[in-house]
Amino acid sequence: xxxxxxxxxxxxxxxxxxxxxxxxxxxxxxxxxxxxxxxxxxxxxxxxxxxxxxxxxxxxxxxxxxxxxxxxxxxxxxxxxxxxxxxxxxxxxxxxxxxxxxxxxxxxxxxxxxxxxxxxxxxxxxxxxxxxxxxxxxxxxxxxxxxxxxxxxxxxxxxxxxxxxxxxxxxxxxxxxxxxxxxxxxxxxxxxxxxxxxxxxxxxxxxxxxxxxxxxxxxxxxxxxxxxxxxxxxxxxxxxxxxxxxxxxxxxxxxxxxxxxxxxxxxxxxxxxxxxxxxxxxxxxxxxxxxxxxxxxxxxxxxxxxxxxxxxxxxxxxxxxxxxxxxxxxxxxxxxxxxxxxxxxxxxxxxxxxxxxxxxxxxxxxxxxxxxxxxxxxxxxxxxxxxxxxxxxxxxxxxxxxxxxxxxxxxxxxxxxxxxxxxxxxxxxxxxxxxxxxxxxxxxxxxxxxxxxxxxxxxxxxxxxxxxxxxxxxxxxxxxxxxxxxxxxxxxxxxxxxxxxxxxxxx
Length: 507
What we know:
By secondary structure, the protein is mainly α. Helices cover about 80% and strands about 0% of the residues.
């Protein structure tokens, strides 16, 4: 057997393997250039030591511009798993706080150390000064006014149909009852109603229209029904006035005069005015309280109303204003106030308000209240006025003494106390705000940090600081498998190349 057939492929494999192995070694070795008789030997130093500065710069640029970009860092720091970790840390921290016996002052000392005492001493003056500056700032007031205006407009822009009408009805009723009670006790209502009665009567004196012309048929029917319903009550109220000795004496005198004028003095001696007075009062009382007489009472009231509405408004007003007396006005005022204050009437008024709202259910609240097109300006002016009033009052009460008092009471609290009163919903909201703030901070700070940090420069500087021996070990540890494969491939290719002449010679 020809040994050349075996030696040639094996020699090719050895040469291929050795040349690849040598090439890999020459990437790193020698670390420094070598000289012979003062002349630099070729291929020294190795390729990587020779191009180390360029490689470091290229690698730094690649890392800084392609790998560790601001977008990459922002994406990595705001991933869902990172935010979930922050969430878990806050949950654990909050649970720990709720069980803590430390006071706020103790926690502050741990955070600020020796500087806390100095900070604590200056806190009142600094807080007071900063708050005063903030409250005095026109920009701050304008911002608060705009926030108020925006929130109010959001509410007023809602459609009426979206409102909880049952709650609104109950609120209106409660508000009317409470407000009417407070105002009534203060005497404001009585005074206002009395003034309104006189002003109303006086203003109608020149009105030549008939009452029937300005009052609808349904209103007349409602008035008849109301007077019929109130007739017994009114009669009993009038009769109760006869309990007054002066009224009783006055009526008896009138009855005596009537008897005397119709019967003469002689017959009048046998008729006692007191007996007639009692019979008249009993008769009136029984008549108005007997249900059998109600149709007749209603008929007479109807006729009286029909006759009354044929008068002109001015004639009625003149008659009333000419005969009315202060005590009569007081009675009218008391009657109006009493009727208005009854719960059923307040409920009726509240229901009418809700009915009006329901009739306009497709409109927004602002559309309903904007009668003259100036609602926007009035709302904004109201917000400005409220803001100025609140800020002015705050400026009056914010003093170093008050702030110091509040700070001292706060520092004495155990941190578990406010934590215990912190609801789960509030804590969830705070966590959302913190995470949102964290993400915003990362997005704003990352580009500036990358620019200030200069990733490419740091990577370049770090690589240049490595010794070549360390650099070689580092690269080999990373690409050992791949470099070994290249060496093996060299042997395989050498073997194949050495085998080709052998195959050719066989043919």
